[in-house]
Amino acid sequence: MTVLQMLKPHAGLRVLITGGASGIGLVIARAFVETGARVHVCDASAEAIDALAQSQANAGSARISATLADVSDRDAVERVFADVQKELGGLDVLVNNAGIAGPTGGIEELDVKEWETTVDVNLNAQFYFARRAVPLLRYAQHGGTIIALSSVAGRLGYAFRTPYSATKWAVVGLTRSLAIELGPSNIRVNAIQPGIVKGPRIERVIAARAAQLNLSYEEMEKQYLEKISLRRMTTPEEVAATALFLCSPAGSGISGQAISVCGNVEVL
């Protein structure tokens, strides 16, 4: 196998992506499909799943199957894995992508329920999916792979976004620990830490932060970009490309790492 050939994931990988019917998750799902993978996604949005199904129908393709599920609901997680067994017959890759932005505010202002919801979706769900995926990943032909979506907020402090940042730091701890635990079973575990990714989600985050600091959206966005060495946002495709690399033979020696795809965010 040449180095160039090593950069492409093995064809026919069976991939599960949480929060995969829209946003970064959907871009990752479609990238895997382009490599010949069979992909199953779950998502909490019925509208997103319907839109995915319609887009595949219009394209005459149905390579991505889906389950409507709240990732923080353990019963829903069981339904997802029942569908994975039915649709894929096993699993080679788990992409723990689902997450929420959580509340914006000073620590004394935060609602306890919003804190708990952020922890449930961003951290507990990653545990629920990993524990169910590992027994399947042990049988992956080329070794199993878990990719956890953390964030640049999982390597930097993030004032007024403590629930989000705390969970994303915890995801890195979970990743590094599982890499040690699962390495002898030929299962690699890594985290991707996106920075400020183009799309509706970051627009909502910037708007909320601007309101918190009594600034215009434009001024807040400018401040965000000034903290990035490349002075631009990351694209979802750059995140997806990193996921593909980690699942390729070229990435077969990488485990226990938290890889920032952020243009080098210097501070939050």
From TrEMBL:
It comes from Paraburkholderia kururiensis. The keyword Membrane does not apply. NCBIfam families: PRK12826.1-2. It holds the Pfam family adh_short_C2. Signal peptide: none annotated. PANTHER family: DEHYDROGENASES, SHORT CHAIN, ESTRADIOL 17-BETA-DEHYDROGENASE 8-RELATED. SUPFAM superfamilies: NAD(P)-binding Rossmann-fold domains. Belongs to the short-chain dehydrogenases/reductases (SDR) family. It comes from the Bacteria. Keywords: Oxidoreductase. InterPro entries: NAD(P)-bd_dom_sf (IPR036291), Sc_DH/Rdtase_CS (IPR020904), SDR_fam (IPR002347). This is SDR family oxidoreductase.
